[in-house]
Amino acid sequence: MTMLQQLFWGSGFLCLCLVIETVVLVFCADALRRYAKRFGLLTTPMRRGGFLLIAIGYILFCHTLQVWIWAASFVWMGAIGDWNTAAYFSIVTYTTLGYGDIVLGNASRIFGAFVSINGLLGFGISTAFLVGSMSDFFKSSKDVEQRR
Fold first, then answer.
1. What's the rounded Cα separation, in Å, for the pair 22 and 62?
2. DSSP string, 35-86
């Protein structure tokens, strides 16, 4: 791929993944609202744990889905020949761990860098969502405890 093609496709997959992350987190917020309505005030450790597990489950699903999208893109574009290597490279790059044992050729290096950009943004968005959800949750729990 030329540099412009790498920039085009990398930006496209990055946008796709961020849209998916947004949609998944909107569904997660909805699920958390339903959970809070169903179980009332989240005052017991089990209810708090359930709330946290739901949020973490959605976030893990979202990140796993994005890693597989990137792995598929590497296989589809011919940058990496097999699924095992593509998945491994995507995970290592998405998490910005970057072992360096798999190096892309000149025709896809720029494209590969978009995976780490996606990981940085994705983890930042997920962390902000989790902190926001938990702070709202703890604020409402604290209000209940103060009324007692």
1. 9
2. HHHHH-S--SHHHHHHHHHHHHHHHHHHHHHHHHHHHHHHHHTTSSSSHHHH
How much is the pTM? 0.86
Q: Which amino acid is at 40?
A: G
List CB contacts of 13: < 8 A, sequence separation 6 or more.
69, 70, 73, 114, 118
DSSP state letter for 101: S
Average pLDDT over residues 74-88: 95
What does the block give as tokens for 43?
């005052």
| Burial (0-12, 13-18, 19+ Cβ within 10 Å), 131 | exposed
Tell me whether residue 51 is exposed, middle or buried, using C-beta atoms within 10 angstroms of its C-beta: 0 to 12, 13 to 18, 19 or more: buried
